[in-house]
Amino acid sequence: MSGTEETGAPAAGTAARTGPPGAAAGEAAPQPPKEHGAGDGRAGRRIRQVRELGILLALALLVAVTTLANPGFLSGQSVRDLLLGATLLTILAVGQSMVLITRNVDLSVGSVMGLSAFAVGVTFVSLPGLPTPIVMAIGVLVGTLCGVVNGVLVAAARVPALVVTLGTLYMFRGIDYWWAGGRQINAADMPDGFLGLARITLFGIPLPAVVALAVVLAAGWYLRNYRSGRELYAVGSEPAAARLVGIPVDRRVFAPFVINGSLAGLAGVLYAARFGTLDATVGTGLELEVVAAAVVGGVAIFGGSGTVYGAALGALLLSTIDAALPMLQVGSFWQQAVVGLLILVSIGLDRLLAVRAARRLRGGGSRGA
Amino acid sequence: MSRPVLELSGISKSFGAVQALNQVDLAVDPGEVVALLGDNGAGKSTLVKVIAGVNSGDSGDILWEGKRVEINRPADAQRLGIATIYQDLALCDNLDIVANLFLGVEKTAFGALDEVDMERRATELLDSLSVKMPSLRVPVASLSGGQRQIIAIARALLGEPKVVLLDEPTAALGVAQTAQVLDLIERLRDRGLGVILVSHNMADVRAVADRAAVLRLGRNAGDFGVEETSYEEIVAAITGASDNPVSRRASVTRTEEA
Ligand SMILES: Nc1ncnc2c1ncn2[C@@H]1O[C@H](COP(=O)(O)OP(=O)(O)OP(=O)(O)O)[C@@H](O)[C@H]1O
Ligand SMILES: [Mg+2]
To answer: For residue B90, which residues of chain A lie inside 8 Å, CB to CB?
Structure first.
């Protein structure tokens, strides 16, 4: 980040500036201690909140405009559909965020989800007697195993995540095709109890959406309140520094891949329950939408910052765009352009906020002199 | 004179064919600032890393409060009470000041991070060092170089060390920021810590150091009291000028080089 947040104090300190661009001019000389600005204390958090508020605002605006154009948009059924649609993306975005925070990326999630979904279908077909919860657990387990493969290759073999997961994207998809062999599994092959899961609601909210909410809250709580969660940010922010203070960097890189795999597996299970029609193409191309959701939600692609709450809001926003733009008679080309624009705007917004925060802080520091 | 808290004798270390350290001695007393000087490649950072346990020496003894100890890993050094601030800072830019201070030693309550306690301790620590920060909850990326260096030093103090190693702490800083860091180093001395300060900057050394130990090509090339030694004498030892009685006396074994 250094170099971009140069302050606007040109005259001060020019006499002996030997420091790197990140070092601010006009540093106050040693002075009697003062209170550490408690009033400014929430600045870091505020940046994040501004980001999350911005997404909520965009979301509200989009919903309002769409509802004006088409009042049916806010009907119970259409909201339920929207939430169901956002469920998978949200779960995947949470897992992806944890990987991104450690300065890695998992491009294989679409394939993992597809493989898990197909595994669920195949298990129902070939072992009809098996209880539904066990079949669902198998689906999650398939995802977890894929995550372990990714994690081992990245953390132990030290291959860059981009390369590893690009490879496993094709590998897992290849296994899926080989396994399916052109076969399709239909709703008729799966028990009604399983397919009914997507239709169960709690207080009017579809069960899968409740599951997604639980995933978001659990991951958010973990990242915010646990040492190992904090250490994920440290690893993504400055791997060398993390290693020097004794953080087990490889373990902290490995775990998010496994969690992300499990969540992709869970998404596969929910996909199977909701759509009931499974073939080898399930989840194709999803990975970029997942990364987009996380980035729009403020998770930096360079690691070390962002929250899963933001990523979940990003997923909700992208899903709402998908649902709303057709109702507004916007063509599918423009839908993609809008998503692209959103990514650019959100990254630009991040930079702007960071620069302004830095300027305000340093300005405050030199005024004390 | 008090007994040295840390004493190295005959430390050697080679990287393949490069003999980075050759029979180096060094001692630091409690409440003493020892400047470690030498040209580029003289072996200063290597010696710091040996003390910090990042590289272990090939041979030689390390005495800690008079007792022989082994330092094979960074954790060994930390357990003894040796804190190291590396040349390249090692802060996490995206984390705030409190998180950086407690990185790796976070305080928890019932398994969860105890932010309130950590913030209180951070405030206490920085106040005790007479350091003022604009805010404890901003990412350290937004701090100036001097402030970052101070955070790095403050973090090292959390473990209540007895010896602090600083590898070129002022290398990237402007005048005012350097003064802040030197101030802090003086406060460390006043607390009775032994400080080993690697520096290229003779002005810094004259400002805060009690003694100057010079390395040249991996060997001891003199040990001077800063008060009673002239600038020229120290520079001569660093560069290896031959007509220097102090350095000749300090390293009688190296007469063949002259
Ligand atoms: N890991 C390493 N592998 C091989 N050679 C090394 C390694 N570390 C240091 N050296 C060599 O050891 C010698 C001493 O290096 P060192 O980094 O200790 O010097 P220094 O006194 O800190 O110099 P500077 O003032 O430039 O920081 C140099 O010749 C260097 O090339
Ligand atoms: Mg060095």
So the answer is: 238, 240-241, 244-245
Residue B39 DSSP SS3: coil
Q: Percent of chain A scored above 70 by pLDDT?
A: 83
- Protein residue whose Cα sits closest to atom 1 of ligand 1: B15
* Whole-number Å distance between alpha carbons of A215 and A91: 7
Q: Above pLDDT 90, what percent of chain A?
A: 54
Under the banding of pLDDT at 50, 70 and 90, the label for residue A21 is very low
Three-state secondary-structure class, residue A330: coil
Could you tell me which CATH number the domain at B6-81+161-257 has?
A: 3.40.50.300
- Tell whether B183 lies on the interface with A, counting CB pairs under 8 A: yes
Which of B26, B39, B46 best tests ligand 1's pocket when mutated (most atoms within 8 Å of CB)?
B46
CA distance B157 to A328: 61
Q: Mind telling me how many Å the CA of A93 is from chain B's nearest CA?
A: 21
The structure tokens listed for B58 are 């090939």
Pick from B195, B205, B194, B251: which is nearest to B230 by CA? B205
Count of helix runs (H) and strand runs (E) in chain B: 9, 12
Flag the least confident range among A76-90, A282-296, A312-326, B231-245. Answer: B231-245
Amino acid letter, residue B177 = Q
Which domains are assigned to chain A?
40-361 (1.10.3470)
Of A107-121, A300-314, B165-179, which range is least confident?
B165-179
Q: Residue A28 gets which letter from DSSP?
A: P
**Which residues are CB-contacts of A262 (< 8 A; sequence separation ≥ 6)?**
A95, A140, A143, A144, A147
The residue to mutate among B44, B84, B165, B202, having the most atoms of ligand 1 within 8 angstroms of its beta carbon, is B44
Which band of pLDDT confidence, cut at 50, 70 and 90, is reported for residue A46? low
A322 vs A251, more confident = A251
Report, as ranges of residue numbers, the positions in chain B whose pLDDT lies below 50: 247, 253-258
Query: Does the predicted interface ipTM exceed a cut of 0.85?
Result: no
